[in-house]
């Protein structure tokens, strides 16, 4: 009788982490930036039907890179958690920190379980406050750890190089146009140091806008409004995006992303197709 092959726990966890990181790195990068009036989400996404970013609750947004079917299930679970907590207690009791803790427990349990493969996802949960000091951004890697980010964060693809670029150039009090241009510059950088052009049609942009009078602060920026922001002169005053000018206010049941155009699990009981990388 042959002796069973032994793998140390340390090696097993290292292998699982490497597997998850490689899966996440195959996807397109996305960035989340603080600006004067809120938080902006920017990513390259040629699909108009599938989104990298989504609303979770009134002041909370969700971004993810990796495998669509895996983080779509996490997004739906987050929406259900937020709705139930807001209904049971109070809407103000739904926070990004609480949601990040729920996601961390789920990802950590899956990562440490030998019975299933680790999720190939990296999440960002952001909440806009009444003032810039109240903004919260949490990054959750595949292993369920929580990283409290400030100013800017990049996940997926070439995230390390993009994060370094943003850290050197991001500053407090940027206008939306300035933050958007910086995000596009960061996403345009190639691993070899070169740059490429990303047209507006391939960009997905959403904001959590603290100046919005509605209770729900999340909205998408598309069309004329997006092009106007990209064409704005640096430092010139730019009006906050309005709901009737090229923006798309979205509800918490929007599906999130992959940029390949493959649909996935739906909360309403729709069909499920094979998962795809974003």
Question: How would you explain this protein's 3D organization?
Answer:
The protein is an alpha+beta fold. Helices cover 32% and strands 21% of the residues. The N and C termini lie far apart (45 Å). It has helices at residues 9-25, 68-88, 96-112, 159-169, 176-188, 223-231; strands at residues 30-35, 38-44, 53-57, 60-66, 121-127, 136-140, 147-149, 152-155, 203-209, 218-221, 247-248. It contains six helices and eleven strands. The model is unreliable at 250-276 (pLDDT under 50). The strands form two sheets. Strands 8-1-2-9-10-11 form a six-stranded antiparallel beta sheet. A five-stranded antiparallel beta sheet has the order 3-4-5-6-7.
SSE arrangement:
Elements: H1 9-25, E1 30-35, E2 38-44, E3 53-57, E4 60-66, H2 68-88, H3 96-112, E5 121-127, E6 136-140, E7 147-149, E8 152-155, H4 159-169, H5 176-188, E9 203-209, E10 218-221, H6 223-231, E11 247-248
Antiparallel strand pairs: 1-2, 1-8, 2-9, 3-4, 4-5, 5-6, 6-7, 9-10, 10-11
Helix pairs in contact: 4-5
């Amino acid at each position: 009788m042959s002796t069973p092959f032994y793998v140390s726990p340390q090696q097993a966890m290292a292998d699982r982490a490497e597997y998850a990181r490689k899966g996440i790195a195959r996807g397109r990068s996305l960035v989340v930036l603080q600006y004067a009036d809120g938080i902006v989400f920017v990513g390259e996404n040629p699909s108009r039907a599938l989104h990298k970013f989504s609303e979770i609750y009134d002041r909370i947004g969700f971004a993810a890179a990796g495998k669509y079917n895996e983080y779509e299930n996490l997004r739906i679970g987050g929406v259900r958690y937020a709705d139930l907590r807001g209904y049971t207690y109070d809407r103000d009791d739904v926070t990004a920190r609480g949601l990040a803790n729920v996601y961390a427990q789920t990802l950590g349990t899956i990562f440490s379980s030998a019975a299933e493969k680790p999720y190939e996802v990296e999440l960002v949960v952001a909440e806009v406050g009444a003032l810039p000091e109240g903004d919260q951004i949490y990054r959750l890697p595949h292993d369920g750890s929580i990283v409290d980010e400030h100013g800017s964060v990049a996940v997926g693809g070439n995230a390390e190089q993009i994060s370094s670029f943003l850290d050197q150039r991001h500053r407090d009090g940027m206008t939306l146009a300035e933050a958007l241009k910086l995000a596009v510059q960061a996403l345009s950088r190639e691993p070899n140091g070169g740059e490429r052009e990303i047209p507006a049609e391939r960009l997905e942009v959403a904001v959590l806008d603290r100046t919005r009078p509605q209770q729900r602060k999340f909205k998408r920026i598309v069309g004329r409004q997006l092009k106007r922001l990209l064409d704005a002169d640096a430092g010139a005053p730019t009006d906050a995006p309005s709901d009737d000018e090229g923006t798309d206010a979205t509800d918490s049941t929007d599906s999130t992303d992959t940029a390949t155009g493959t649909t996935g699990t739906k909360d309403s009981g729709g069909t499920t197709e094979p998962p795809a990388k974003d």
